[in-house]
Structure formats: structure tokens, C-alpha cells
Design brief:
Structural class: alpha+beta
Distance between the termini: 41 Å
CATH topology of one domain: Lipocalin
CATH architecture of one domain: Beta Barrel
Helix content: 10-25%
Number of strands: 30
Oligomer: single chain
Shape: globular
Length: 453
Amino acid sequence: MIKIRFELSNFKKPYLYHQSNRRPQFFNIYRKMNIVEWGSEFPVSGNIQQILYSFTHKFKKLRTFIRALHSICFLYEDSTIIILPVAVLQTKASLQTIQQFLDTKKDPPSSILYYENKIPVVDVISLSPQSDVILPDFLIYKENFTFDLIRTQNDKSIQLKLNEPMTIHDSFLKRVSINNGFISIVTQRENESKYTIYSAQYSTNHQVSAWALQCVVDFVPSLIFTRQPTLYVYQQSDSGIFGCSLDSKGYRRFPRPLTLVCQNDDFIPVHSLIGFYIFDKTNSTILQISGKNTKKVCSLNSGKILEICLLGSRVFALTQNSIVTHDILTGEAIHTMSVPNTESWKISLDESYGIVFCGAKNYTVSKTEIPPLINLYAEKSELMNQMMKVNQTVGTVAAPILLLSNRSPYLATTLLSEEINNEVQKSYTETSIQGQVRPTLEKLNELLKHKPE
């Protein structure tokens, strides 16, 4: 059953979940999660779970992996790369060929990409292009400032460009991070103990024209997050989150000192695609980093948490023997799945597909199973994008229109005039979501007719 939180207030006050701290206002649809063992979601029966488990636990020591929409990238500790198109898991014949390769570690089938790197691989990143026609790219960054570009096609074919040069060289590349339209790298010069961080605006052709010096650090950060106007670094051994102003133009000639944003030995970085979040184990609270401040998102009560993953309106807390799903608005645990004991988790979080949890066994949840989350105080353009994503996922924008109207009926009619009119013209039963919000939509439609031009 789908439930909606809403309030009809004749548009006199905004709809707030927590009026005390005025945190961002969200729209959320409740729905049961469908976390399954990775492989069981494929339509073809067979030993797909066993094959995927072999790739993550038996073939070689896994360092990290990415499950994108049409393919999977595995990176092993010896810098071996395997690209497994999802399409090759659809027939029993191809499954038998892959299983034989996993057993013998010889003669990889032509349907997959397998290659060993002599140069250490630093990071593997997946990027979803702006066009819906093009599938996500895998970028394999290496220590010698080169990268491999890999793209899979719907027909199982794989395009590979090896050893593309980066437009910067500084002895050794140690870390690469791409977010919010920026690429940040950590470099180290030979015979030096310090590390330098550079950033640049990232282009769709995977090249950079101008690198900007940011700061010098004593460690290789375990996490770098870049968002105008700040660059953040995190290292657990250094007890906190640090940041400096972001030079996006390349004007800086000397490194900026890092400023402490928040200090704590018990932080866990949150895996997320929409912002910079940390989990404070001391008080079991998820915090959002914004500027020099932290904002409380929600508190969790799931015992000893090892990893945190955030996607849409759901927070996944991973313990040694469970995956606990929480609602991001309240922190309430809405689903608990017992799993075999595991000391550590590896997580694949990709915008095109969703999440895969790799522990004692592998588990997955598609992003289509996760209810959308809308920040009603976002900028107008972002708000429209969020609304349209909800429409694609749920099939209606009626409920978000209602909540947006409680914030500002004029804004609702200005942004969503066509959507409001379309919803009013449709026929619904009184017990449906659309039926429940129809009276408010009709009021909005009347307001739309009389709004000033």
C-alpha cells in the first residue's frame, strides 16, 4: 500500500516536517523494499548468483566493483580489470563459458573484457553521460597519469581506448574523484612525502584543459568531495573533515591551507550520489556537510553500523549480520534483512542502476525499487527535474504538486501549470493518490487561470 503525507492548509503556511531546525523539506512515497540476492533479479534461471559470487569472492582478491545498467566492472588488487556485459548473463550457453573461465582462469570468452595492467590502477569511476542514448562509461585511472575509457553497447560489444594521456603529470597519481562537474586528483612527486590536490572542470570528452592547484596534504584522502565553492577531504586517521576554498579557474599560485570543518574519530563517510554526508557513530546521526557547517539529516538505531548508503529516500545501514533500510525523513527502520555475518562490506552505487552490497554474500536493490525524494526548497530548474523523475518513476506528479503548493501556490502554478492541468483532466477513484489530492489540484488550476501574467 502506498501512503502519502500531506496537509491541506488553504496555502496559509509551508508544509514542514521539522519546524524547529528548518531542514530541507522533502516529499516521500512509502513502499516496501525489494532487496534480493544479486543474480536472482535476472529473468533467466541458472547459476547467475554463483557466477557473480565467484567474480567478487573467488576469482581474485576484489578491490572494488561497479554495477552499471548494462555492464559490471570488477577491479582486483593486482590491477586486473574485467568488464562483464549484463547481456552475456542471459543465456545458459554463455553462462557455461563464463563458469569455465572462472574455474580455470584461462581463455576468457570473447563476450567479456579481461586484461591485466602492469601500471597500478588508482581508481575506477563510472560516468553516466547526459544523453539517454549513450550508456555509462567506465574510466580506469592509472598511476602514470593515463586512463582507459570503456563503453559497452546494447549488442554486447565493448569499446576500449587504452592509455589515454591526462593533461597533467606530476610523478605519481594517487587518487581520482569526479563529482558535481569537477575532477579532483591527488598527486605525489618522487622522493616527497607530501601530496598535492588539483581540481578542474570536467568535460564530456573526459579531458581537462586547465588544472587548478588547491592544497597540499600529509595523506592520501580516503574521500574527496568538490562542490562550489569548497573542496572537502576526509581521512579517518586524521580525525575529521577538512576543506578549503575551491579555485575553479586556475588562478591560484600557492596552495591554500585546509580548515577543519568538523572533528571526530568516529565518522563513517556515507555512500551517496546527491551530496556530502557523514555518519557520526557517537550519536548514530547522519550529517550533511554544507559550507563550514553540518546539518542533521536523521538518527538511526540499528546497532553497530559498518557502512551507510543513501539513495533516493532510503538509507541503508549495513551491520555484520543485517541490511537495515531506513526512511531518510524520520530515521525509522522500515525493513530489516538478516544476512550471513561479514566483517566488511564493499558497495557499488551507480546512478544508472542502483546499489549492490558485497558482504558474505551479494545483495542488490535497483533504484527503480526506491521511492523518489524531492527537496521542495531546491532551485526552480532542479525542482522541475526532480518532479519529472518522480513522474517517470511513479506515474504521477499529483502528490509533489500538492506539497509544492503548500510551500507556494504561485510557484506551483508557475512551474507546473501544464502538469496541473493534465492531472485535473484525468479521472481517478477517490481512494487513489490522485483522487485524494484532486480538490487541491482543482484549486491550483483555478489559481492558474487568474494568476497575473
